[in-house]
Amino acid sequence: MTVAPESPAVTPPSLLATLPGHWYTAPGVFRREQEHLFEAMWFCAVRGADLDRPGAFRTVRIGRESVLITRNRRGEPRAFLNICRHRGARLCTEESGTVRRSLQCPYHAWTYDLDGRLTAAPNLSKMPDVDRVERGLVPVRLREWLGYVWVCLAEEPPSFEETVIGRWPNGSATRTPWSATAWRGWRWAAGSPTTSRPTGS
Ligand code: FES
Predict the structure, then answer these.
(1) CA of 121 relative to ligand 1 center, distance in Å
(2) Ligand 1 pocket, residue 178 CB under 6 Å
(3) Which residues form the domain of 57?
């Protein structure tokens, strides 16, 4: 059995230091990573072609949230927190699918149109104080670029132009679409400062 040395060897100056082991397991580090990276930055979430018609949807996990991405009746992409505004149930439990014109919660049948507006619920007509827009799905910031749908959970997202488009390799919009964050992480991991790039999507 290999026994780890009691005191780690000093990293030679020519090698980049690696992260301490507890950074990969500590709950506090994980929470901060979720808050400051995955829930604060733009992410390449789904291919636009996967939402090939109004009502087609995908659910993706971004940070600690489930996000529902769909197209409305005009074919425009829309993203919402995948949470029913009645009692907070998960609205869509499938990873993907297509609905005809509305999204209905499986719990008590609150129903939303593809723009997130509350359109129907049991006894809704007897509840005039329930505002259908106010009680609609919570929108998530979204951009469609390079054939991909990008989302950001932050209430005030960083500039998409500066943090995604402007950081694309060579500023080109013709390269293989990929998550800009993943690209930077890959480049860091590969130790490649500028030129190499991934070929997958
Ligand atoms: S929790 Fe969705 S309808 Fe009640």
Answers:
(1) 9
(2) no
(3) 43-148
Whether 103 is in the pocket of ligand 1, judged by its Cβ within 6 Å, is no
Residue located nearest, by CA, to atom 3 of ligand 1: 108
Q: Helix (H, G, I), strand (E, B), or coil: what is residue 62?
A: strand
* Band of residue 180 on the pLDDT scale cut at 50, 70, 90: very low
Tell whether ligand 1 has an atom less than 6 A from the beta carbon of residue 84: yes
Domain count, the chain: 1
CATH number at residue 52: 2.102.10.10
Q: Two tokens at 156?
A: 């005030």
Half-sphere CA count of 87, side-chain side, radius 13 A: 7
Residue 124 in domain? yes
Spatial neighbors of 164 by CB under 8 A, at least 6 apart, are: 42, 143, 145, 150, 180
Q: In this predicted model, what pLDDT tens digit does every residue of 76-110 receive, in sequence order?
A: 999 999 999 999 999 999 999 999 999 999 999 99
Map 86-125 to HEC letters. Answer: CCCCECCCCCEEECCCEEECCCCCCEEECCCCEEECCCHH
| Ligand 1 neighbour 87 (Cβ under 6 A) | yes
Q: Give residue 75 CA to ligand 1 midpoint distance, Å.
A: 27
